[in-house]
Design a protein that fits this description.
Elements (H helix, E strand, L loop, with lengths): L6 H5 L13 H12 L6 E6 L3 H14 L4 E2 L16 H17 L13 H18 L4 E5 L2 H11 L5 H6 L8 E5 L4 E6 L2 E2 L4
Parallel strand pairs: 1-2, 1-3
Antiparallel strand pairs: 4-5, 5-6
Length: about 200
Amino acid sequence: MRHGQSEGNVARIWTSARTGYPLTELGREQAKDAALGLRHRGVAAVYGSPLVRARQTAEEVAGVLGLQPAVLDGVEELHVGVHEGRHDDDVAPIAVEVFGRWLRHGDLDHGFEGGESGREVADRFGAALRAVVANHEGGTVVVVSHGGAMALGVAALCVNVPSQFVADHLLANCDVVDVAYDGVDWWARTWAGITLPAD
């Protein structure tokens, strides 16, 4: 699940700082609403990335589900390097190029200046989800992450999620991606409400 609306989203600030920007009241409501849609799933655990907006989202989700959230390293937002704290008006043109190379051309070996490469983000995201599966074999778990990290991580991890599809369907606040591991491969059942084919 992507985190709820943050004050940084409203201000259109690019940040991967762990302190960062907290959720807005709307963001908290988005998290609670998303959690209500998961009550029938028998969720065993809720994790959030170390960034405050994801931790707060995880707290709201866990509260609805009667669980205690935990922090999961590896699913935090991609590091934007020299663009940390800058306004979207300045970063957006660069981001279009970077994400285009990542998602439309499959070039994960570069990133934002001074930040992570796409491959580094995808690798740490995948490692974090594998650790979750190892700790909750056969269970349903909520992991609260971030739009950029999820785009790269899920596309790299799941055999049925083309990066072009991800580029055309970027995640909104509290969108849910339903991912499963069958013991061999990872699959995405749904992406923000869109059912994905199994092959």
